[in-house]
Structures are given as structure tokens and as C-alpha cells.
Amino acid sequence: MNLTGAQILWECLVREGVDTVFGYPGGAILPAYDALLQYPIRHVLVRHEQGAAHMADGYARASGRVGVAVATSGPGATNLTTGIATAMMDSIPTVFITGQVPSKVLGTDAFQETDVTGITLPITKHNVLVTEAKDVAHSVREAFAIARHGRPGPVLVDICKDAQQAQTEFVWPETIELPGDKQVPMVRWEDLAKAAELIAQAQRPLILAGQGVMRSGASAVLQAYAEKTDTPVALTLLGLGGFPASHPLCLGMMGMHGEAYVNTAIQEADLLLAFGMRFDDRVTGKLATYAQHSKKIHVEIDPSEIGKNVPVDVGIVGDLRGVIEALLPHVPSKRHEAWRIRILGGQNETRTRDIVHQPDNGHLYAAHVMHDLWTATEGGAVVVTDVGQHQMWEAQYYRHEKPRTLITSGGLGTMGFALPAAIGAKMARPDAEVWVIAGDGGFQMTQCELATLQQEKLDIKIAVVNNGYLGMVRQWQEFFYDKRYASTPMLSPDFVKLAEAYGIAGHRVTTRAEIASTVQAVRASGEPALIDFRVEKEEAVYPMVPAGADLHAMIRRPATEEGVTA
Amino acid sequence: MKHTLVARVLDEPGVLNRVASLFRRRAFNIDSLTVGHSEASGVSRMTIVVDTRRTPAALVAENLRKLVPVLDVEDVTHRPTVSRDLALVRVRCAPGERSQMADLVAIFRGKIVDVAPESVIVEVTGDEGKVDGLVDLLRERGILEMVRTGKVALVRGSKADVKTRAADMDQPTSGNGAQPTV
Q: Regarding the domain with residue range A366-538, which homologous superfamily does it belong to in the CATH classification?
């Protein structure tokens, strides 16, 4: 069967199970767009290619399927890069298709020519330039295989315009073999045995669970393990939802803005079980003083992560679910009463400082917004957050019970992520209740995608946590730069009117009493809506481990009189 | 500490760029990197000498293995190997000094491969220590220009005992090695 390279591209995507792509047309990708009309794939026209990349990313995070974004050469491709780097840092399976100038003029600085495989080399798992139609099928097939394989990630396929136009015989490669030894290696018995021995000896064990729990579908077996061995579970930001927040063994988030008792537990543990996480600097603090008293078992699918930041006693390379399943029969049923009581003491102490337990003093705190949003949505929403203070408050106060209910940019910390990622998430899971939570700064970076949201008629609710500052940067300036607020006070548009300009209902909330009723009203509307929460301007996220400081050297919220009595 | 890694890679455009980019962005220090054809068509062989004071060789190797065109990586540092470096050195040499120069070079089993009125080109091959030794002596006479290939290496003995990572693994357990559900 002879087809054009463009047709072959879509033939392959259909066979890979792709139902939706996010993109923006242009000269070098036009043949592909023309051919797309023949295929059963929904194309979402974005307003900026960065939005397309985040949508593909959000789609993948919400569903576990590969997200796909399409852009033209030159500026189309360069606009994707922030989104590609975001997907790379968080290991999100995505495929990016870009048009490239015709192969005959490659390297001549042709109109809208950019060395896209060169630019994206360090921010993709792999990329490839396709100059001939005959290479399209294999390259696209390989791209999907690589994006999904092992530790997932973004793959970019840059296809020359003439390769899209030329005809060739289409042969679907039924199987694809990646070069070399790319199989996830078999787990070694001796490593499992050594891990089981450390587990049997431990008195103060602690699980550090990361995004790998979601990626490998390990939630159930993780819970079984935690319960059998009576081991508390601390979560990374991207691990939230991997273990139910309501579970008695769930401690919540660790790290820079983790609760004090979680970080204290890490420092006091005698065994850390790092499950599908990578000891990022935001979770370890200063490495030299990190978890000095513990043995460490690291289960991770990417061998280059084992021993990268933190030396470990046992490193097991493998798929997390498989490894825990293999380990479970060999670990003893145990109770760690004293250890749990010790942690509980810290939990109780924290509660007295917790802003959520302070009485309504007429101010609207972002933490209250998160807490009341959690209760109003019965904890059942898919929450897509941007980056900054609101992201940390969400992580602290919206309690996630299930995997893939929090979608957020962790590694790269990309402001502007939330709205487009939520659009991708909603398209992947149309039945889910999807909430965007964004700050006033980050929201303005990609607010143009409100038009995309309306064009696709998506019922997404948006909470703008508006404090008139780039809040997290302001917080750093407050703590570490003597309150010199260089370029952090920020003028924003009237978000209610902005929403209305896009045909989206806008609401404003200025007191705590209005939160629940407004949230319930927009939930009942069945329409997209934006709520502008005018929160306290100079509030800080507590606790905080200053960058590079000891994990136990936390800046705590001052315990107030109201707090102690609450 | 210096480690010698041998990587077999697909001979395709950009593969050297991928390896170099990896070393740059991970701040791995390369002492030398050579690349050339191997025994198999379509497969190139890289010999990479890395400074492992900051990053262990095993981590460098695992990062290399993640690159799609990299077929396999072996750390041959502690294995018996034949390793060679080739140098071409243009050294000052007056006509009257040529036989003395030839004697010196011969001690290192090198050759004079070109002669000009006031200089010669010396070729020497050997392990890096030997080449360093001759280069130090030539430096006293005035080196005008020099090029060195960097180290290339083969493990001694028959090829069959080249270990791969897969072959290094013990008996598999059940339920592992599975693809993640993505």
C-alpha cells in the first residue's frame, strides 16, 4: 500500500492507540495536517505550542497513555521546549511530532529552520530527524516504544516536509526491537535476600514513595507491604495519591515543604525504603546530613538513579510493582508500635501549629482554600496545580486518596503548567472532575489557553489563588533577602472579567465563609468556571527547609495563641 | 582515578553528539574519547577515559546505556587489556641531530616518518605511559606541533568472555523485568 509520509504518520498513531493530539499548524507540518482530516484522531488547536506540550503531558499523567503534541518547524518547535523539558524531568511518556524544512535545504538557514533535534537533545529521552518517507513508520513506532519503555519520557520525531509529502510503501512494524540491551534487568535473588534481611532487622522503618508507584501501578501492593510490615509511608510531591492520605500509615509529603514530623521521621529512621523516587535535592536537603542513621534500600527502574545522590545499601533495579510483589512473601509480619507513637507525637505537635485549625479571623488564607476545596469536592477531584506557594499548600491540604489525582510539575517546576495540563487531563478522563489551581503569576503565563478550553467545550473549574505577588519568590525574599521584594509585586487583570471575556463564568471570593458555597455553585453549574480567590498577600508556606540546609533544620510556623487553643 | 569504558554504539548521525552532550550536561570529565569502526558493520566502538573522582564509573556507564544508540558499555579498567595511543610529533631537529634523534625514537619503538630541513615528524604507538615518556623527552628538543589519538583498548583473550550486563544477572525472580504499565 503506497501512502505519503504524512499518511503513514497518522496510520502509525492510530495503531498506537492515539485518539487525541494537541497542536498548532504551520508551513513545514502542513502536509501532515492535510492528511489528518482522513483519520479518526481529534486535534486540539492550542493558542501557543507550550500549551500543546503541557496538554500532551497532562493527558499522559492523567491516563498513563502516551500524550502527543504536534508543531511546525522553527518557532513552533522551540515553543514546545519548555513542555518537553517538563515531561523529561518528571518522566512522562510523550511523543512530539515537529515539521522540518525540506531535506534538500537542511542546514541552509531556510525560513523557519531550527536544529530541533539539536535543541531538544538534552531534554528528550531520544529524538530523531526523518528525511525520507520510508523512515517514518519505523521512527514513529520506535518513538512510542521508547517513550513508554522503562523509565518513560519524551521522544521527538522531526519530519522533513518532503518526507511527509513523498509516497512510499507503508509497512507497519509489528514488533520493534530497541538497539542493545535496553531490557529492564531481572532482579537478583541476592539483592532481594539482602533487602529482606535489612527489613527484618529494622525497628524504625520508613517508606519513601515516589511517582514510580503510579507509573508501575504499585499502589495496592505498596499498601499490602506497608500494612504487613507496619511501615509508615512518606510521599514525594509526585508520589501524592500513590498511597491513600486517609490511611493511618500515611504521613504525607516529605521534603522542603513537607510536614516537620515527616522530615524528622526520615532523619530518625533506621531503614529507608525508597520506592520509585530519586532523592531530589528538594526532598533530601543537605546530603551530608541526610538520614544518617538509616540503612537504605532503593528500588528504581532507572539504574543511573541508584547511588546518584544518596549512597544505598541495597539497590534494586526493576519495575516497582514486580519488586514489591517479589519481596512481600519474604518479609516478616511486624508491629512497630513505639516508632509509630514517636511519629504521632510530632503529628500532634504539628496540628497545633496548623493554620487550618486556626479560627476564622476574617482573613482568607490559601491553605483554607485548599482545605475547603478538598472537603467540598469530597477529595475526589483530579487537581492540576501550577508552581509556587499554592502548589505546596495544595500538596499539604488537599488529601489525595487515589493515584493520578494530582497532576503537577515537580522536577522542572514549570509555571504556566496548570491550565494546559488540565485541558489534557480532562480530554484523557472526560468523566473526572478536573480543577486547576494556579497562582496569579503562573496563570498569566498560559491563560491564552482559556480559549482552547472553550473551543473544546471542556468543563474545567479554575481556582486562581491571587495574592498579588509571585508568592514563593516573595517568600524567599522575605526569609533570605531581607524582605527586599524585587519584582515580585504583580499587577493582574480582573480575572473575573478575563474569564467572562472567554465566555467562562467568573466568581470572586474574599472571605473564608464564601469558599464552600462558591465551589459548590460552580460544581453544580456543569460549565467551566473561574474563581478568583483574593487571599492574604504576605503569607508563607510552612514549614520550610531552606535550600541546601539540613532536612531537620526547618523554619516552622510560629505557634500562635489561637493555634494552641484550637 | 581514571577508568576506561568501551562502548559499542550504532554508527548513525549524531551518536557522538549524544555521548558528548551527556558528558557535558552531567558534568562528567572525559580525559579522552576515541571513536572508530568496529568488527561489525554499522557499529562503532568508542573508548572513553573518564575521570571518576566526582562520578563513579558505574554511574557513567549506566547513563551511557540509557542512550538509545548505545548497544553496550563495559568498564575494562580492571581487566587485562591491550591499550594503545598513537602520537605524531613534529619536533625541532637540525640536520646534524637526525641520527641521534633516530636512536632516541628507536628506544621507544617509534619511527621518523617525515624529514624537513629543521624538523622531523616522529610517530610512536604504545600505552599512554610509553607515549608520555617519549613526548617528555622530545619536549626538551622543542615540540613544534603534536597530535595524539587518545587511548583505544581491547580486552585480552578470546572475545567470548566479554561480559554483558544481562549475562551478569543471576536467576530471575517472578514478576519482575515486566514493563511498567504506562
A: Thiamin diphosphate (ThDP)-binding fold, Pyr/PP domains (3.40.50.970)
